Amino acid sequence: MLELIDIHKTYENKPLLSGISFTVEAGETVCLLGASGSGKSTLLRIIAGLERPESGQVLWNGTDLASVPVHQRNFGLVFQDYALFPHLTVAENVAFGLKMQNLPPEEIKLRVTGSLEQVSLSRFADRHVTDLSGGEQQRVALARALAPRPRLLMFDEPLGALDRALRDHLLGELRGILHDSSIPAIYVTHDQEEAFAIADRIALLHDGQIVQSGTPADVFARPASGWVADFLGLGNVIEGKWLGGGRVETSLGVLEVDWGMEASRGESVALLIRPECVKLIENGIGLKGRVADVLFQKNGFRVTLENGLYFYTPAPPQVGEELSFALEAECLG
Questions:
Q1: What is the rounded CA–CA span in Å between residue 144 and residue 33?
Q2: E-assigned strands of the chain?
């Protein structure tokens, strides 16, 4: 098990990581999700031993890794840019790290063969990596990381250079490989859809801290703050003032919410209005808004009102049309 305890790191005299603590259990894939510059890649480098934290500990099964050099940690790294050797064949790229470990030739051959089978590239063993597509090169990078039989795999935006269709395809394959191998993994990305597709558990980084951690289903259903809901694209996030009695004053008017936490009258709160919770009303009673934009998407039309509220409908209204609607809001604190 990997355990990080109170990791701190600064960059250009400004806090980058402030008290990061989390664990990765056996066979678990944890996704570090956050915007660019949130410290995700730096955290990976600290775990790998490529950088040192100013304070805090990185433990493996209770053993502090501070004095353990990179090559002795037995952690595999997969990068966005593949980092393959262009003058070598696929098999030679996969074998490179094994040769550095001075393994017997027969053992190297067996591991290269097995790793290429795991990523469905056995027939490409003798090709040069420059003759492969981007998706195939990323599979080679994964095979190279798997060959030394690492006790932890780390992925730093590994699919960022690929198009959406190929990325979706490789995500499914990668998730299957990780589950079949039972190797624990840390997966870094800024892409919300990617995180939800690959992770057993998501840790969201913001302002140098983990602001929420949980399963994809839990994070989606119960965002911990307005920032989390907005970053994940869960719906409309609006600010309001708590009036008491389940009422919040907002730019849309006074809204009734199901409030399950303590709050003082006049306290600022954030509300999440998911698109599916906006219901059009034909008789004209309710909240009103004028259509500012209509955008076709594969499951219907995204309608944005002049007040910024958006939702989806199967049929498009006209730009400039006034709509009446009711809505349900979640209070985020």
A1: 25
A2: 2-11, 14-24, 29-34, 55-60, 63-64, 75-79, 152-156, 185-189, 201-206, 209-214, 236-244, 247-250, 253-256, 268-273, 278-280, 287-297, 300-305, 310-313, 322-327, 330-331
Q: How far is CA 55 from CA 51, 66, 72, 213, 219, in A?
A: 12, 11, 21, 22, 29
Distance CA 77, CA 43 (A): 13
Backbone angles phi, psi at 217, to 5 degrees: -65, -40
Please state the pTM of the whole predicted model.
0.89
- Give Dmax (Cα) for the chain: 79
pLDDT per residue over 1-20, tens digit each?
999 999 999 988 889 999 99
Query: Any idea what DSSP says for residue 129?
Result: G
Task: Report the pLDDT averaged over residues 319-327.
Answer: 93
Mean pLDDT calculated for residue range 158-183: 85
CA separation (Å) from 132 to 82, 135, 138, 217, 313? 12, 8, 10, 36, 43
pLDDT band per the 50, 70, 90 thresholds, residue 201:
very high
Strand partners, 241: 249, 268
3-state secondary structure of 305: strand
239 SS3 class? strand
- Name all domains of the chain by residue range, CATH numbers in brackets: 2-226 (3.40.50.300), 235-331 (no CATH)
Per the CB < 8 A criterion, the answer to whether 274 and 229 are in contact is no
38-77: burial string, b at 16+ Cβ within 10 Å, e else: bbbbbbbbbbbbeeebeebebebeeeebeeeeeeebebbb
Listing DSSP states for 133-180 in one string gives -HHHHHHHHHHHHHTT--SEEEEESTTTTS-HHHHHHHHHHHHHHHHH
Residue 333's H or E segment, with its range, is none
Confidence (pLDDT) at 284: 67
Average pLDDT, the chain: 91
3-state secondary structure labels for all residues of 280-293: ECCCCCCEEEEEEE
Residue 256: per-residue pLDDT: 83
Give the pLDDT band (50/70/90) at residue 260.
Answer: low
